[in-house]
Specification:
Aspartate Aminotransferase, domain 2, 14 helices, about 15% strand, binds 4'-deoxy-4'-aminopyridoxal-5'-phosphate, pyridoxal phosphate, diaminobutyrate-2-oxoglutarate transaminase activity, Diaminobutyrate--2-oxoglutarate transaminase
Length: about 425
């Protein structure tokens, strides 16, 4: 079987298949298998939608049992047993023990749908239109969320003005010494700042597509304090770094903050099934019935998968395992990989890591490493400005042996490229 049908009939808009042009068929755990039976290690994991691995056995059994009994599959926002059990489990297993109190709003089943809902709510609640977002952010590509997404490549095809957003540099991503929080305070307090008071601040605590830029707990707390002082809503986009990837279920737990709105999607259903929701502080729930409707807010299999994922997490001690693997990867990347060359910069948290190769002269170095890794049967993508950061996004359930194989492939190609001379010249030589 060939890939010809895609080249002739599928729109040019396809993206991942360009970097990884194999014909995939089966998948299990951390591996993808082609139609020919070749096994690839997956360090992309559905762009973060498969934290519990491909076809997680525990979750799969719950899904199969649910379907076998002809339980309801599509329920709009009707009351269903599956949804009731999911909300109860999420509340009992996560929110209550963490001292969090939120109402659940189910949205159309993609990340961008949920971001649109959060924006609409924040604007209606505060009766303000401006929103603060950060340079390097990725919040989705529909019109409202695209306005919050900084990449010019995506913005240029909007076809309309992308307004009502003010961008600030993310922590450690502006000019040297630039303090975004001090600047934000100035904007809010100076009556001549020329910038409208915002409804909300929205951010990923770790910018994923933006190059794995990690906000410190202190910076997050500072930002939250400014929001509280000025009556601005704090929206955490936990679509990619949430659902356990940071080590905790929510990425903001480490900072000890409680966002006003939390946006979740991607790995929420546990099985790669489409699902998205907002968690909102109860006082924000000013919605009138049906004001933000959507047909696919009631995909019942996603509720079943999402509840099973929480059980899997609890029963397998996943949180502790992620934290242990996180230190293992961090040590390897910093002490074994980056120690070899000061131009290799490592950033990350939990099981999302970036190898930043932007200090090398060769602008395509990261892409070459990713391409060569793919030849060696490792799927890994490049992110950040001009795609100069290799992004590691393993399954949270990855076995040690597979993890080591993947890290060795990356190390081999990075070292070979650096020492080949093509990229070896120092930028500031
Ligand atoms: N926010 C973040 C942080 C994301 O990583 C993504 C997807 N990469 C989105 C929003 C948009 O999600 P979706 O592609 O499901 O619309």
């Amino acid at each position: 079987m060939s890939t010809q049908v895609f080249e002739t009939l599928e729109s040019n808009v396809r993206s991942y298949s360009r970097s990884f042009p194999a014909l995939f068929n089966k998948a299990k755990g951390s591996h993808l298998y082609t139609a020919n039976g070749d096994a690839y290690i997956d360090f992309l994991m559905g762009a973060g939608a498969l934290n519990y691995g491909h076809n997680n056995e525990y979750i799969k059994q719950q899904l199969l049992a649910y379907m076998a009994e002809d339980n309801i599959m599509q329920g709009l926002d009707l009351f269903t047993v599956a949804k009731s059990e999911f909300i109860t489990a999420f509340n009992d297993l996560l929110l209550k023990p963490k001292g969090l109190e939120y109402k659940f709003q189910f949205c159309g089943p993609t990340g961008t749908n949920a971001i649109e809902a959060a924006l609409k709510l924040a604007r209606n609640y505060t009766k303000r239109s401006n929103v603060i977002a950060f340079m390097g952010a990725y919040h989705g590509l529909s019109q409202g969320s695209l306005a919050l997404t900084s990449n010019q490549y995506h913005r240029q095809v909007a076809g309309v003005g992308l307004h009502n957003v003010t961008f600030l540099p993310f922590e450690n991503n502006g000019p040297a010494g630039f303090d975004s929080l001090a600047y934000l305070e100035l904007m809010l307090e100076d009556t001549h700042s020329g910038i409208e008071k915002p409804a909300a601040v929205i951010l990923e605590t770790v910018q994923a597509e933006g190059g794995v830029n990690v906000a410190s707990p202190e910076w997050l707390r500072g930002l939250k304090q400014i929001c509280e002082k000025h009556g601005i809503l704090f929206i955490a986009d936990d679509i990619q770094i949430g659902c356990g990837r940071s080590g905790d279920f929510f990425s903001f737990e480490e900072a000890g903050i409680k966002p006003d709105i939390v946006v979740l999607s991607k790995s929420l259903s546990g099985y790669g099934l489409p699902m998205a929701m907002l968690l909102l502080k109860p006082e924000l729930d000013i919605w009138q019935p049906g004001e933000h409707n959507g047909t696919f807010r009631g995909y019942q299999l996603a509720f079943i998968g999402a509840k099973a994922a929480l059980e899997f997490r609890r029963d397998t001690g996943l949180e502790a395992a992620v934290k242990q693997k996180a230190s293992y990867i961090e040590r390897f990347l910093k002490e074994e990989l980056a120690a070899a060359d000061e131009r290799i910069v490592i950033r990350g948290r939990g099981l999302m890591w970036g190898i930043d190769l932007s200090s090398f002269e060769d602008p395509l170095l990261a892409k070459k490493v990713a391409q060569q890794s793919f030849q060696d049967k490792l799927i890994v993508e490049c992110v950040g400005r001009h795609d100069k950061v290799v992004k590691l996004l393993p399954a949270l359930t990855i076995e040690q042996e597979t993890l080591d194989q993947a890290l060795n492939i990356l190390q081999r190609h990075i070292t070979a490229n650096i020492s080949s001379g093509a990229s070896a010249k120092k930028v500031h030589a």
